[in-house]
Amino acid sequence: MIDENRVWAGALSRDGVAADVALAEVRELRAGDRPTHGGRLFAYVYDPAVPGLDDLAAAAHRESAHVNGLDPTAFPSLLAMENALVGAAGRVLGGGPGTTAPDVVGSVTSGGTESLILAVKAARDAHPELAAPRIVVPASAHAAFAKAAHYLRVALDVVPVSLDTLRPDPAAMAAAIRPETVLVACSAPSYAHGVVDPVAEIAAAAAEAGVRCHVDACFGGWTLPYLRRLGAPVPAFDFAVPGVTSISVDLHKYAYAPKGVSVLLHRDAALRAPQYFAYADWPGYTMINPVIASTRSGGPIAAAYATLRHLGDAGYLALAERTREAVAGLAAAVRGVDGLRLMAEPESTVVCFTATEGGPDLFVLVDELTARGWHTQPQLSYAGLPASVHLTVTAAVAPRVAEFGPDLADAVAAARTAGPVRLPAELSAVVGALTPDALTPELVVGLAAGLGLGAEPGPDGDSGVGPLPERMALVNTLLDAAPPALRERLLVEFVGLLQRPSW
Ligand SMILES: Cc1ncc(COP(=O)(O)O)c(C=O)c1O
Fold first, then answer.
1. What is the mean pLDDT of residues 1-8?
2. Using CA atoms, how far apart are residues 441 and 316, in angstroms rounded to an integer?
3. pLDDT tens, 192-243?
4. In degrees to the nearest 10, what's the CA dihedral of 230, 234, 237, 238?
5. Using DSSP, how many helices (H) and how many strands (E) does the chain show?
6. 138: Cβ below 6 Å to ligand 1?
7. Which residues contact 410 (CB under 8 A, 6 or more apart)?
8. Residue nearest to atom 15 of ligand 1 (CA)
C-alpha cells in the first residue's frame, strides 16, 4: 500500500514526519555512499582521523548555521571568525606582519572554484578599459579557471605542460602574455599530478609584464609549508615570491574543515578592491558582497574556525608528517608492482600512476581496486598525457598503507587476467563518428543503455538512468576514446539523466 504521507512530493510529505524518521532516512541514503572516513577513498574527502574533530566541527556549525554573512555588522561573530581564518591562511602562506607581504588581506569563499572565479573577476575588473581580457594558465591548471573564464567572458590562453615534468615552461607562460592579459595563474600543486609549478619564474614574468599572478594553492597550500618544515624540498610558491599577487587555499581540503570554506588572499587591499560587488541602485538594502554568494551560512566558517583552533600549528605539522609517510608508502607500493609507473615522484600529497607498456588496463584496475574496497580516481588521457590513477592522500590513509600494497598487486594481477574492456563495435562506431552537436536525447539514452547505465522509464515514460553499475571501466573506456568536447557533452547528458526530480 502506498504511504501517501511519504510519497506526497519528494522531500515534502503531507504532514511532515517525526524527526527521528527524517534522520533515519538521511542515514539510510548515506549508507549507499563511498566511505568518507577510514582512509580508503582517495578523492573528494579529506580525513585527518582525529578523534572528536567531527563532533567539534558539527557543534560549531550548529552554533552558526543560521547566521548570515550578508551583513557583517549584524553578525560580528562571523566577521571575527572570517578575519581569523584569513589571518591564519595569510600567515601559513608567507604574509602578515614581519613578512615581505605585511598588507595581505582576503575573503572566505565557499570553495576553491569560487576563490578562482573571484581571482579572475578581480583581475578582470581592475582593467575596465580592456574590451576582451584574457588569462594565461598551464594546461594542468584546475578546470575552475576555465569555468571562471566562461562565466566572466574572459579568454583562456592555455600553455601546454611538459610530458616529462608535468609543468609548464616559464618561458612559454611569459610568451603567452599579451597586452590584454589580466592574470597569469599557476598551481602549487596541480590537482591531477600533485606537482608544484615554477612559481618564481612565472610570477617574475607576470610582474615584468605588469600583470597579476595568482597561485592556486587550493589543494595543497595548507600542506606544502608543513611538508617544507618536515624537510621536504618544497620550492617557494607563496607571498615570499615577488610578483605573486593572490593565492587561494581551501580550508575544506588539507585544513580538514568540513566542506564549504576556502580563502582567497591578495597581497594588498588595492588588489582586492575590484573583487567586491556593490549595488545601491534599488529600493532594498545596499548590497556589498566580497564573494559570489550574498546570503551565506555562518556554519562552514564556524566549523573551520573551530577546526583550526583545535588542531593548531602543531596538529597540522603532525598530520602532514603522517600524510607524508602515507604518500611514501603508497608510492613504494606502486613502484613495487610490475606494469605500473608513477607519473611523477610525489612532491606533495598526491600519488599518481599510470600503466607501462604491456601493463594492466587502468580502468579495469580501478574497478578491481574498488572491488577490494579502495576507491581511486581514474583520470582520462589528455593532450599526450596517458590515462592515470589519482590518489589524494590524507592523514587517515597512514594506518591503511600496509594493506594497500598487496591489494594493489592482487588487483593488477586480476586486471591483467581480465584484459582491457572492449567497446562494443556499435559504441566505438558512435564515439568515432559523433560530434557534440549531433548528440540527440535518443542517442544518449541508447548510449547509456549500451554502457549498462540501466535506462529506466521515468514517471512520464521518459527515460533516465538507474543505479550506476559497479564496474565503470566500460564507461571510462568510452569517455577516454572521445575528444574532450564530446566527453563534456556526454557527461552533461548522463548527469542530466541522473538529475531528475523524485516525486
Ligand atoms: C588545485 C585546485 N584548485 C581548485 C580546486 C577547486 O576546488 P573546489 O572543488 O573546492 O571548488 C581544486 C579541487 O580539487 C584543486 O585541486
1. 58
2. 49
3. 999 999 999 999 999 999 999 999 999 999 999 999 999 999 999 999 999 9
4. 10
5. 17, 15
6. no
7. 368, 372
8. 219
Ligand 1: centre distance to CA 186 (Å): 13
Flag whether pLDDT at 459 surpasses 60: no
Give pTM, 2 decimals.
0.96
404 Cβ inside 6 Å of ligand 1: no
Q: Is 467 exposed, middle or buried (0-12, 13-18, 19+ CB in 10 A)?
A: exposed
- CB of 392 sitting under 6 A from ligand 1: no
Q: Which atom of ligand 1 is nearest to the CA of 250?
A: 10
Confidence (pLDDT) at 462: 52
Q: Is 197 in the pocket of ligand 1 (CB under 6 A)?
A: no
Q: Give the DSSP per-residue string, 13-41.
A: -SS---HHHHHHHHHHHHTTS--SSSS-B
Q: What is the pLDDT of residue 5?
A: 57
Question: Average pLDDT in the 294-323 region?
Answer: 98
| Residue 382 three-state SS | strand
Task: Confirm or reject: Cβ of 112 under 6 Å from ligand 1.
Answer: yes
CA 376/CA 383 separation, integer angstroms: 22
Q: What is the pLDDT of residue 448?
A: 83
Task: Provide mean pLDDT across the span 472-501.
Answer: 92
Using omega within 30 degrees of 0 as the cis cutoff, is the peptide bond preceding 189 cis?
yes
Closest CA to ligand 1's atom 6: 112
